[in-house]
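Memo to structure team: turn this sequence into structure tokens by end of day. - J.P.
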Amino acid sequence: MTSQTVARGDRPGGALGGPAGDARRTPERQLNDMVARLQEGARAFARLSLPDRIDLARSMQAGYLRIAKRIVQASCTAKGIPLGTPAESQEWATGPWCVVRHLRLVAESLQAIERTGNTPVGQIGETADGRLAVRVFPANRIDGVLFAGITVDVHCEARITEHDMHQARAGFYRGHGHDGRAVLVLGAGNLAAIPAMDVITKLFNEGKVCLLKMNPVNAYLGPILEEAFAEAIRRNFLAVAYGGAEEGAYLIHHAGIDEIHLTGSDRTFDKIVWGPPGTERETRKARNAPLVSKPITAELGNVSPVLVVPGPYRDQELAFQAEGIAGAVTQNASFNCNSAKMLVTPKGWARRPTLLGDIERALATAPVRLAYYPGAEERWRRLTEGREQLRKIGQAGPGQLPWTLIPGLDATDLREPAFSTEPFCSILSETEVGSDDPVEFLNRAVEFANNRLWGTLSADLVVHPRALKDPRIADAVEQAIARLHYGTVTVNSWTGLSFSFGSPPWGAYPGSTPADIQSGSGWVHNTPMLERIEKVVLRHPLTVVPKPATFPSHRTAHTVLRRLSYLEERASWARVPGVVAAAMRG
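Reply from structure team:
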């Protein structure tokens, strides 16, 4: 996909921050002091022993567990989520569960390096197009019990052999390190876990100290994170700063900052690298003369597609997948980079009305949410005005937006803004391509997703397992997975699950350039510390019992995710029955 065929994304604010949100700011003198201390700490951190790194990871995990309830409560308060309700689960899922699990897996990887010289990986296989596939989930037997039938494989770049993979992973710990580097982490403003997990990746995968600048949207989390990660801060391996675009720009150009990582919007990336929109920016791009020459990694947005392959679905199976899609819309009020945004259905498929009706009914079970992210109401208005088939679900009060379904978009309309604009609000759109022949649909749907939709981050497929008994369809599905230019592709599940697991890498499909960044570059999470990654593929059963806690109708999701978060401290079998019991009551 190129910028000539698809317009850029449209999410505002991003990592630098905008006018809305927390007003606290770190003075320039204090920023200088932070950078100086980090530069000193970087040299010590590069030489830190494996036992010391393991102790640090455990200290950070223990600190995060101490503040877990507070960070959930603060997030719920800021986002208008009533405490003690199922919606509270979303803040456990995108806060403590992710972070506590990530730190446990990091410690286990470091222990494996200390014991065997390398990180643990699962079975090795081969993809439909002949690439090496490395299993990274389930990461232990408890994963296999709690997430039965779910697997995640990393597909390596072409011509990477098993020997190459073993030799390359955990490179920092295998003689490919550095003498110390400081990374500016420009934290996202939507999920509590993102700033923490970005820092954890840079610290432990790459051996680099971090200056985390909180986004004004969720800067209220900063002091809590400072408390959780106090040991890393005390040892000058981490500092936390506050402010908006001015502070971000100052740090980007600071001589003591060696690298930059941002999670946010492509507009923020372009502003950092090329300057404000206008003639000067375009001239710089034409001359390949960026304003910033430091290495930059980024995780940006996406118009995330859900491709529904026709098959012999029973009503309850279709309803199950419909609620999964609804959950991928409603989680975090749809302010996620990988929220389900574009439903792609087969043209002429008889079950289309049933699926759309099921999705609408599932959305109706989710309470309407506060549109807390800056600019959401304006984006919603621009993308919905004049739509004759618009379906609004739920009664929106002040500051809220209804769940919104926009069906029947013309896939051939080159001017359709929903294909090129990441809504970053409560909208799910739908379009039809191909036909109800699964092979023709997959060919057309992959072409549409790759060439018409903006972004390269994540894509979901819905496929009936009985359809895969036909070798022609099975081959078409595998070829579609191989051809999709997305960093994570899932089958019968939302990509948010792969994000949360920690062991799978998370990032955009490789190949973007600074002049056309799409959904970013580089990988985070990735506790096996793999290199030369092409994409991640998660496979999930068509239906499961008990139903996932991401489903809007789940009645005990908050209890499930709270218990799951504490289970992750040491992967405790003693905590498994409590998680299962709560899940069964959902």
